[in-house]
Amino acid sequence: xxxxxxxxxxxxxxxxxxxxxxxxxxxxxxxxxxxxxxxxxxxxxxxxxxxxxxxxxxxxxxxxxxxxxxxxxxxxxxxxxxxxxxxxxxxxxxxxxxxxxxxxxxxxxxxxxxxxxxxxxxxxxxxxxxxxxxxxxxxxxxxxxxxxxxxxxxxxxxxxxxxxxxxxxxxxxxxxxxxxxxxxxxxxxxxxxxxxxxxxxxxxxxxxxxxxxxxxxxxxxxxxxxxxxxxxxxxxxxxxxx
Length: 242
Hints:
This protein has about 240 residues and is α+β, with helices and mostly antiparallel strands. The protein folds into three domains: about 1-125, Zincin-like (2-Layer Sandwich), CATH 3.30.2010; about 145-190, no CATH class; about 195-240. Helices cover about 25% and strands about 30% of the residues. The chain has six helices and eleven strands. The chain has a three-stranded mixed beta sheet with strand order 1-5-2. A three-stranded antiparallel beta sheet has the order 7-6-8, with no helix packed on it. The protein has a three-stranded antiparallel beta sheet with strand order 10-9-11, with helices on one face. α1 (about 1-20) crosses α2 (about 85-100). The radius of gyration is 27 Å and the shape is elongated.
């Protein structure tokens, strides 16, 4: 998988060179698979900032130092992306390569300019955000993330939907939809508990019944003399579900 990733990366570099985009001036780049089970497609981390791109500004009482150019870049691609079609993988790689260019740390004006050129000249579809559900469908894979999410984020304008396990409380105020610029709304998935009715035969041959979401834990609690005064001091012999 790592080898295939490197081959696709090398192919992207050759394509960029073919349209006159030279990466020698932007510093050293390495690429690898992410070790974490990320929901995102990939990320680009930077090292060795170029002092000539240094700017200092104030935000409230804080002094912020910002660099717009770096000499080392580390691209990480999520493992699940490697299961998708090759053109989607290369599109992800190209997205992260653009982040290596000066003034492209974010998805601002410079990032969009490079993306537009690459999309027009090389036929890519680099954008600010990806559509995982569509990419899974185009790769003939089953999309199952909806069953494992905690937060559902939906654009109020174009109805684009994506899912997250974690959620930044400033997300709605900070970000807008990458497709239409619309505002997001967030909903939390309701956790559905399954309750079981149970009966236990105690060591004095009496029957006790109750209900719980965790049979094993409840039996352990009962045998420790907790939860019910009638049951206290007794030990369960058998347990069954109704």
